[in-house]
């Protein structure tokens, strides 16, 4: 029996309906949630992400301000842009699209964003609050993974979760979120990566397997425990002469092979991706709601 294909677009759609209602309520208070997006350079993938985020803002009633700058922009100038957004009451969330040109220090830029407007959840203050179980903005992709697990009723509590990937954006924060006390935490978590010897030994133990390492189709059927839930966070371009673009997108999981083994699996595209942008919208609205509460 083939695995259930998890429809990330449908899950995101349900959450966006809730976001729209929250935006309408804020507008009744005279508050329009605002997101400031900064794009430096002309990286095609980054441009595509930013365009998708702006479209999502428009569809959900969120004000979006895009600031595009050439790759030659100096770090000091970018810091100045962030400071102006920090001080702007119309902007509730700030997103600086990564990666940045090599001459700009990403950690310096992330730390310059006000934690109150850190809707990406990357600021050290946000990550520290998350680590200690305090209320904060959760990183968007890891939170999207949790929303998928919630939507299919796959609580990680008491189960073994293996995460393949240790990035600051996905692997590390997701591990901490799954370790947290509560129904959607309380997991036993193993974190593997590209240098883990005998990776299959760890992936085969997983009740929930999350692939986020950025290696096309790394996870094969023999690496998966029968009946596991498989969440594929990876997005990789592989050559495909049948496509107009010359490539197609695949995940970190051999989808067709693993589909024969797993209980449920996310596709690429159409799995985790739609949730990442949705959680960005959610964080922006949450930031605007805090402003509204402070004004009362």
Observed structural traits:
alpha/beta; Rossmann fold; 2 domains
Q: Please outline the major beta sheet.
A: 6 strands, parallel
CATH superfamily grouping of the largest domain: NAD(P)-binding Rossmann-like Domain
Average pLDDT rating? 95
Strand order of the largest sheet: 1-11-8-7-5-6
Q: Could you tell me how far the N terminus lies from the C terminus, measured between alpha carbons in angstroms?
A: 55 Å
Name the structural class: alpha/beta
| Rg, nearest Å | 19 Å
Count of distinct strands:
11
Number of helix segments? 10
Low-pLDDT ranges: none
Which series of helices and strands comes N to C?
EHEHEHEHHHEHEHEEEEHEH
Number of separate domains: 2
Instruction: Give the strand content.
Output: 15-25%
Please give the CATH class of the largest domain. Answer: Alpha Beta
CATH topology of the largest domain: Rossmann fold
**Basic shape:** globular
At CATH level 2, the architecture of the largest domain is 3-Layer(aba) Sandwich
Helix content: 25-40%
